[in-house]
Amino acid sequence: MALAVPDSGPAEAQPLGVHVEKTLRLAAPIIVARAGLVVLISVDSIMAGHAGQLDLAAFGLGVAPLMTLMLVCLGALQATVVLAAQAIGRGEPHTVGEVLRAGLVNALVLGCLAGGLALAAEPFFLATGQQPEVAAAGARVAEVFALGLPGLLLFITVNLILEATGRARTGMVLMLIANVLNVLADGVLVLGWGGLVAEGGGAVTATATSTVLRWGLFAAAIAILLRDSRRDGDRYRMLADAGQWWRTAVTLGGEPGRVIRRMGLPMGLAQGVESAAFSTMVFFAGLLGTAALAAHQTTMTVMSLVYMNAVGLAGATSIRVGNAVGRRGAVDMARAGWSGIGLGGLLSGLCGLAMILQPEAIARFVVSDPAAVAVATETLRFAGLFTAFDAMMGVAMGALRGVGDVWVPLGLQSAAFWIAAVPTGWLFGFHLDYGAVGLFAGIGAGITASLALLLPRFHLASRRLAGSFGQARSASSP
């Protein structure tokens, strides 16, 4: 099957309705693919929760810092799809293969560096005041999760290129297959389905199944990408000999690698400051007790699944804005951004309504312990109030990535989550005695503050870039 070619047409503005339709069509498989990454973790969390309260608490604690590192790396690699989308928009598809190779080298380095930090997990958990039993079990979870981190980042890089070149459904199908296999493996090895194991495992076993699957995802994705490149006549120059790979490796990607790091660093840090704030709330929840920590993990699992609407739409919006930038379509650039932001709020807002109306039913699906269910019912109901804002914030970040605006959004995210979210969570959770619900008051404050800052920023950044398009056209006119 030939690779589909994304938008690379003329700069005439398209109606807003066309932008909505194209964004949804591109976002749908990306949402499923991104959701699949979180579902892998969520299924492990649910299986650990049914194995016992200690297993769920250990899983939440062990994954939290690695999730922060993973999101930093994923944010950094988002520059890959921006560079590919802009190259296609400029009519230079032959440079995409070079971007792919640079992205893979950087993904492998980032994965190894981030995963290596898991070796210090247990001393870190003890230093933050966690219970010794939970800290020890959480450290084992972190170490096993870290083994799969390089494979995950390599898969993400390949999948970003597939999305930028019109093959987003490939990642979707692979993630669906991986999640079915993960459910079956966790069911057999953790919960003892079919009586194939004498005694079911716990959080570490659940983590190990998805670690193996992440490496399998990368192997399948790169094989499919290279196969399709051969069939397509290598339009994007994906195929390379050993010498090209060696030069890419020793130079860490050459010029595309430097651009990925320069653009990706603030993207990754922006993801990191938000995720680190969320991880701080996990440590706060641990100080409130095992039931509060399990309930917090339950709510964050649900919020993460809902947020996949935003992640998919942010990816699609980044690609479509990047295409418009490449072909210097000022009106399309703005419309692609705002339509994505609006869709994010609508889709995640509907999910938030379900969290408000049926919090106990959702809580029981994730965790079985009565004490954890009671607390999670309240935190889920409260978290449902700001899921729409959370999604709009995420898509706004994607739109800003598409126009290449990365450093200012980093500062805005840092301010929102470390000046508003963390202090508010500490105040409401401990000093005003709202407990676990108070921690989500802090998260909601950070999300609201971030959205209030990012929306005006996209308006200004897109207008400034549109002005530069006009100046370039004037300068080239006879």
Order of helices and strands: HHHHHHHHHHHHHHHHH
Helix content: over 70%
Continuous helix count: 17
* Content of β-strand: under 5%
The largest sheet, given as strand count, sense and whether it forms a barrel, is: none
For the termini, the CA-CA separation is 44 Å
Count of beta strands? 0
The assembly state of the depicted protein chains is single chain
Shape: globular
Write up what this structure looks like.
By secondary structure, the chain is mainly alpha-helical. Mean pLDDT is 89; it is low at 1-5. The chain contains 17 helices and no strands. The longest helix is centred in the last third of the chain and has 42 residues, at 435-476. Helix 1 packs antiparallel against helix 2, helix 2 runs antiparallel to helix 3 and helix 14 (370-383) runs parallel beside helix 17 (435-476). The protein is globular. Helix content is 83%, strand content 0%. It has one domain.
How would you summarize this macromolecular structure in one to three sentences?
With 478 residues, this protein is mainly α. The chain has 17 helices and no strands. It has helices at 16-51, 53-89, 96-116, 121-127, 132-147, 149-164, 168-189, 203-231, 242-250, 254-288, 290-326, 330-357, 359-366, 370-383, 387-402, 407-431, 435-476.
Write the layout of secondary structure elements.
Blueprint: H1 16-51, H2 53-89, H3 96-116, H4 121-127, H5 132-147, H6 149-164, H7 168-189, H8 203-231, H9 242-250, H10 254-288, H11 290-326, H12 330-357, H13 359-366, H14 370-383, H15 387-402, H16 407-431, H17 435-476
Helix pairs in contact: 1-2, 1-7, 1-8, 1-11, 1-12, 2-3, 2-5, 2-6, 2-10, 2-11, 3-5, 3-6, 3-10, 4-5, 5-8, 6-7, 6-8, 7-8, 10-11, 10-16, 10-17, 11-12, 11-14, 11-15, 12-14, 12-15, 12-17, 13-14, 14-17, 15-17, 16-17
